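seq:
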Amino acid sequence: MSAVMHGHFDALSFALKDRPITVTYHPFATHRLPRGLFPFCEERYFDEGTGELVTIPPETTVAEFFGLEAGWPHFDRDPR
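struct:
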């Protein structure tokens, strides 16, 4: 396993900015997953030189990444 993605995975994760998704990279993986594949995730990895934990904030939101319009999923428009 080269990385683990964890967080809230529901419709609101895509709409709200207060539900972070994090990718944590395995420090000794044989086949490493390249960093930056998921710009909507916070990335965490250990620096090979210093051994320090490095945390990189997300570059965009899930909604922006997937091109969802503001306010999606529009629960306020539900006719029920």
